[in-house]
Design a protein that fits this description.
The protein has 283 residues and is of the alpha/beta class. It has ten helices and eleven strands.
Length: 283
């Protein structure tokens, strides 16, 4: 039987640790504040924002909420971001994506101060990661590393395949695995002989957004499989990129969807908020 990696339990462990850190900082006179901006009323974004607010409440992080109408202009949004950049009592700024189509997401991300970029999307954050300098790391890849480490899975020396090359997951995931001394291959839609490539992986991380695409033919016997995908199956149920029922018997460890990587993303966002204090002022 494969080890089922419980993201809910591990994320709660991290949140409890963060709760203690937040309390210690408050005793020193430092209150941590996260500003969350949502434009429009996308239902999925609304769920994510509510979960982030609950996470803040649990860990003792103060949250400021800005809910802007769909017709908000890019200038209005960046004006708000720049005002929050200047506020000394705001440690982290998060603009919930996706934004309405008339707003340039890249311009908004670049408007956030790198010292407050708790999502880890700013080019400065990405650059720092690529050359091994301190900085914010994209929350989902950071969460995957914590899942592996806290589940007793060694990364160093392992052959890892990351399936997906997005700026938010695939690329930073590969860099974090390199930081942990893994041998890393990035595969994607243009990769030839994909099953042959993924079948070499000791650790396979999928982030392609195709429901149940990964079956046992893609997976090496005894591999660790981390499923970052969040999709809907033909019955409208949440599922990942991995066909869990088919793959689970052949791997040594696997994350479920839901309940695997998802909860870790918010836990690492909260961790970045606390880490922001170190970038903004000496403790």
């Amino acid at each position: 039987m494969a080890q089922i990696i419980d993201g809910k339990a591990i994320s709660m462990q991290i949140k409890d640790e963060l709760k203690e850190k937040t309390a210690a900082l408050r005793e020193q006179g430092t209150e941590i504040t996260l500003a969350v901006i949502q434009v429009g009323d996308d239902p999925a974004s609304g769920v994510y924002v509510r979960n982030k607010k609950r996470g803040c409440e649990y860990t003792g992080i103060r949250s400021l909420s800005f809910e802007l109408p769909e017709q908000t202009t890019r200038q209005e949004l960046t004006d708000l971001v720049e005002r929050l950049n200047r506020q000394a009592d705001v440690n982290g700024i998060l603009v919930q994506l996706p934004l309405p189509s008339h707003i340039d997401e890249d311009a908004v991300i670049r408007a956030i101060s790198p010292q407050k970029d708790v999502d880890g999307f700013h080019p400065w954050s990405v650059g720092a990661l690529s050359i091994g300098q301190p900085g914010f790391v994209s929350c989902t890849p950071a969460g995957v590393i914590q899942l592996l480490k806290r589940s007793g899975i060694d990364i160093a020396g392992k052959e890892c395949v990351v399936l997906g090359r997005s700026n938010i997951v695939g690329k930073p995931m590969a860099m974090l695995l390199l930081r942990e001394n893994a041998t890393v291959t990035i595969a994607h839609s243009k990769t030839r002989n994909l099953k042959e490539v993924t079948s070499r992986a000791d650790i396979l991380i999928t982030a392609v957004g195709k429901p149940k695409m990964i079956t046992r033919e893609y997976v090496k016997q005894g591999a660790v499989v981390i499923d970052v995908g969040i999709n809907r199956d033909e019955n409208g149920r949440l599922c990942g990129d991995v066909d869990f029922q088919d793959v689970e018997p052949v791997c040594s460890a696997i994350t479920p969807v839901p309940g695997g990587v998802g909860p870790m993303t918010i836990a690492m966002l909260l961790s970045n908020c606390i880490e922001s204090v170190r970038f903004q002022q000496p403790l």
